[in-house]
Design the sequence.
């Protein structure tokens, strides 16, 4: 008797501990009772103590009067008064006489009942007249599992079949996804769900088990992007620079994703939370202009300081002057020396191709898709003729009014002495150029002396008698 009392006491202690530690219980206590029930009525459902909540039955306890074979247990949904359908079931097999407990995983809903089927053996029974609420039974068939099967009700009795388990977690609340707070991730947070041992998060297309945490960083959320826009490089609008402009460039946050969370434990998955959308942010757009080193779409190098959407490239190739060949007439006129240049020109700057490189934290950097060619313009060509002070290539000074091509130098020596000439050429934007040097002279005017005309031509005195 002492041994029996000890077993009962231990069972009650274990029961009490489990009840304190679990949220669901179902069935009638697995204790030693005054009667037993042989295997003739092999399908039995305990009416007393239906499941108090929904979740998972994780432990079933049985008190057998004698060894039992072919044991199966199940949770049953009551379709109508005596009609039942199996919700979930598990095979236990053979068990020894006395108390035993068995790990199972049975889905259960609040209001379900716990039942058993066995092939042979006897269970502990509390008989009629002791205030029990009754059982349902079905003889000589295996009704686990069954669908809409009618059982027979027996009042005022019960047997030793008991289950404990855990409820599924409640719906997760407080789900919040960041809106552009981070460039490298979306951070999702939520409130703790009681009884949860872990959480799943929906990332727009699939569930992911993130474990027992309350924060998740979605680092593979869609990255922010850069819209590169288009670029233009001016075609000769300035002699001092090529004007660069990048229009339509922008940064774009990552595509929005809808997130939701559900908690889980041994009982299964809780209901899904409300959704909340989030996205990755993006850093400020930066610019870096590049220029080709030839007049072609190749060989690019960065332009120092060119870090804005617009930039004037003063280092673009400058316009140039083709100086041409200067000449001064040799005695073609007694009134002037004719000055002229052949082949001179003012030339626009050499063309260069441009592209702009964009970066933004979080986004993939890159260039504008299509480079653009530009060049510097050139001003009109201007002239300033210069004449040597003597018949030598030295000591030049500007000729007043000598600013055209051609130009007649009436200030050349009347006596036919030679002078050296050159022309200074300018054009806005281009470097000044100076022509070659050329010597020229006038035909000297004739002098009448004693009836003789004396002239000088290229340093030679020529006389002609006056013939009347």
Sequence:
């Amino acid at each position: 008797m002492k041994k029996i009392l000890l077993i009962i006491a231990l069972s009650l202690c274990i029961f009490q501990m489990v009840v304190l530690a679990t949220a669901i219980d179902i069935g009638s206590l697995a204790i030693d009772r005054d009667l037993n029930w042989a295997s003739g009525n092999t399908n039995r459902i305990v009416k007393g103590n239906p499941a108090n909540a929904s979740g998972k039955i994780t432990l079933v306890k049985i008190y057998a009067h004698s060894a039992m074979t072919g044991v199966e247990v199940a949770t049953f949904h009551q379709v109508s008064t005596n009609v039942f359908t199996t919700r979930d079931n598990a095979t236990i097999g053979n068990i020894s006489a006395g108390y035993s407990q068995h790990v199972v995983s049975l889905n259960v809903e609040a209001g379900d009942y716990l039942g058993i089927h066995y092939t042979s053996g006897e269970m502990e029974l509390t008989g009629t007249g002791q205030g029990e609420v009754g059982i349902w039974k079905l003889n000589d068939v295996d009704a686990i599992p069954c669908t809409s099967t009618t059982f027979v009700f027996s009042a005022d009795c019960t047997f030793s079949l008991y289950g404990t388990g855990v409820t599924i977690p409640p719906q997760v609340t407080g789900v919040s996804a960041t809106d552009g707070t981070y460039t490298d991730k979306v951070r999702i947070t939520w409130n703790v769900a009681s009884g949860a041992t872990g959480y799943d998060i929906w990332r727009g297309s699939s569930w992911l088990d993130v474990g027992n945490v309350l924060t998740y960083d979605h680092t593979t959320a869609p990255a922010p992007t850069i819209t590169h826009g288009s670029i233009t490089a001016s075609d000769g609008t300035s002699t001092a620079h090529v004007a660069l402009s990048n229009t339509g460039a922008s940064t774009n946050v990552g595509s929005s994703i809808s997130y939701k969370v559900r908690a889980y434990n041994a009982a299964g998955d809780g209901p899904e939370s409300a959704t909340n959308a989030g996205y990755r942010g993006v850093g400020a757009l930066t610019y870096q202009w590049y220029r080709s080193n030839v007049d072609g779409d190749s060989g690019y190098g960065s332009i120092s300081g060119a870090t804005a959407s617009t930039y004037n490239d003063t280092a673009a190739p400058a316009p140039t002057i083709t100086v041409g060949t200067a000449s001064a007439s040799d005695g073609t006129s007694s009134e002037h020396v004719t000055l002229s240049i052949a082949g001179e020109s003012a030339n626009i700057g050499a063309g260069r191709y441009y592209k702009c490189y964009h970066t933004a934290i979080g986004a993939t950097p890159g260039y504008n898709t299509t480079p653009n060619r530009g060049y510097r313009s050139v001003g009109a060509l201007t002239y300033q003729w210069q004449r040597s002070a003597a018949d030598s290539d030295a000591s030049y000074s500007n000729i007043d009014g000598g600013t055209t091509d051609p130009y007649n130098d009436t200030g050349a020596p009347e006596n036919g002495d030679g002078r050296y000439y050159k022309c200074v050429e300018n054009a806005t934007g281009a470097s000044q150029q100076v022509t070659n040097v050329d010597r020229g002279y006038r035909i000297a005017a004739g002098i009448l002396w004693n009836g003789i005309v004396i002239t000088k031509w290229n340093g030679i005195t020529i006389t002609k008698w006056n013939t009347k």
